Amino acid sequence: MKQIIQANKDRYIQELQDFLRIPSISAMGEHQDDVRAAAEWLANALEGIGMENVEIVETKRHPIVYADWLHAEGQPTVLVYGHYDVQPADPVELWDTPAFEPVIRNHKLYARGATDDKGQLFLHIKALETLMEQYGKLPVNVKFCVEGEEEIASPNLPPFIEEHKEKLAADAVLISDTSFIEEGQPAICTSLRGALAMELSVETANSDLHSGVYGGGVPNAVHSLVKLLDSFHDDQGKIAVEGFYEGVPEPTEALKEEVASIPFRKEKTKKDLALEEYFGEEGFTFQERTGIRPTLEINGVTGGFQGEGIKTIVPSKASAKISCRLVGEQNPQKIFEDINRHIEAYKPVGARLSLQQSVTANPVTLDSSNTMIQKAADAYEKVYGVRPLYPKEGGSIPIVEVFSRVLQSPVVLMGFGLPSENLHAPNEHFHLDNYLNGMETVGEYLLSLNKES
Amino acid sequence: MKQIIQANKDRYIQELQDFLRIPSISAMGEHQDDVRAAAEWLANALEGIGMENVEIVETKRHPIVYADWLHAEGQPTVLVYGHYDVQPADPVELWDTPAFEPVIRNHKLYARGATDDKGQLFLHIKALETLMEQYGKLPVNVKFCVEGEEEIASPNLPPFIEEHKEKLAADAVLISDTSFIEEGQPAICTSLRGALAMELSVETANSDLHSGVYGGGVPNAVHSLVKLLDSFHDDQGKIAVEGFYEGVPEPTEALKEEVASIPFRKEKTKKDLALEEYFGEEGFTFQERTGIRPTLEINGVTGGFQGEGIKTIVPSKASAKISCRLVGEQNPQKIFEDINRHIEAYKPVGARLSLQQSVTANPVTLDSSNTMIQKAADAYEKVYGVRPLYPKEGGSIPIVEVFSRVLQSPVVLMGFGLPSENLHAPNEHFHLDNYLNGMETVGEYLLSLNKES
Known about the structure:
Two copies of one chain form a homodimer. Helices cover 35% and strands 20% of the residues of chain A.
């Protein structure tokens, strides 16, 4: 593997740069054609390395790219998932070089999507190309299922998976869309929190009112909203919504030790972020609070006059964005109903309430002792000389739970990013060492899955 | 009076239209020259009717216009206050005709400033002109002190009054910048609440953080802010800031009766404003809550992500605009300190707080039995056939308390507006009947103050 990757690395990097030049921003209507162009580019790349049955599958918005190579009779099948869409580049003025003009500085490739997820996706294609060149075939059966809507919460992929579960059936789902703990320390994420996003709106009158004339005598929409928002937590940082913690497992000592084993530079982070203090649910560490405990965060709030100076009004409308991270057996739909009951119970006098639900994702836990994950760990060790850790991620990749549940396959989150690579932020980049070593790791992994190996 | 006003009314209305054409918006830097043009126009108008010592007095921002006529030896002196600046016209698209192109529809004059306060100010000048024409002189001594900064909270007038209290000395301060109870029912306001405006800002980190990575483990600026904002009131609508109610008088039965005597269409207002319920301090009526009780209102709140869709962040900054209405002996500076102590006592973990003070005004109560007010009531009765009521206004005109305290003179709030005239809103207008009857009322009032009358 290594020699072929070394011999071809310039071309492998140039091809990724071509992929990164396509501004496939799924959230922005004006980039609709670019998203499609990225799907077509990807389909061509898959065909180019010998993948078969390459399809661009239409959805209500951005297409899914499917491909397979199923000639490894009697061997396991691996389904590779990734996404070819990217986040918007805003704020563009904070980029040192334009987001869609990839450049290499200090052996890092700078561009929107470099690490999330075009670079991490494309290294799989180049790994297969390398295997093909070395062996004339692949050691296992491989399927690709790549979406263009990950950054807009994958609205069309779950039904596609449900409808095509036989076509997508695999012995493992392989995903590179996560990060190392830090440089030199690989990680296979084995837990992702679920998610529930909502918007809570309050209305108290049909227009803002003069505070001199009505102030003190009519309900104030901002007062009503802050009362509700403040009721979601108690003073110990616990979520005060009845029923919220149902299905949240009490962490075992073993799990606590596993969580504590993941390095975390507490004082440095505190200083870097200018935090006065850490704060969260009483009785848990920072790593537990952010990795294996559920949360309810207000992501934003808006209401009444917000300009310069003063406007003495009683606001009639106010709203807040709220999102929960869920763990264990928590179900987003049930939590939504719990929160709905909570706001009705705490409804301030004269407030008309509305709670709109948007993203939902079930939490998922993966068993690190599964063979498919242990072989991935072996591959990392072979290439990097270090065994990966198994962190519990606080974030959510909703589709992981869907693959796990619908296909009944182990999901292997074999990430090659670094936490410092500015994903979703200006100056996103990807370390080229990890791009090339990632190819080798994926290649070694697939080779190790071959039953005759 | 009446005949001369009738004979000249077309010209009196045309001149007011000229005044209204000047977009003297004090809050907007680009209208600086227009504000000055309005001051000059006003100075000319005062000179034109025979006022003397007309001065345009420079301040740090917009000038004060002074003028006097002091030839009524042995007679009382009346100081007329008003303002020649106006509110911005936003939202301009909601005006039926342009804000600075005055038009008459249904005997109402539509323009920004028509009722607040150019129309109500200019009727004094036309009243004096009428008296001059009828008698060749004025029945009392008259001074004018007109500012161009009322709509930006009069930053430069209080020091001017302090420095020139002999020059401005008067037996009564006459102000027309308030409203009737409703058409046909005049009012002399005898109480104005004080005011204190503030901005409360919370910061918890140097940037917004990813809620998947940090959520649940670091302070959230919006959580911190809503906790503080929610702590300002208890569930009975009382303000929970220690010391806040010091100096607030317990209303006497007589005062309660006086307040209750002011008509208020409770059910109609509820329907018009689409209120579900009235709400306020327990134990008080709507009229008491909005007229003679102090308040603390959140005028606006902002923090974190407020766009379309979802952004799963832990916000690092949030802020709120807050304003209080004060009564009795409440002192804005002391209340500010009380609130500062309150937020320090309730300071959420990890929150950096800042409380900035802006507008302050002391509350003021005027004695309705004062001769200067009773003679004004007689003048209303003579012209309108109805005695005025004496409402307690919930709003604040900060300068009233300054005139009252510094000049030690009774202030007579002889308003000619109607509550329905859209002040500070699109389609502001002024009833021409009240413009012309207002001149006659002012004329009759000044005649009644002459000791030989």
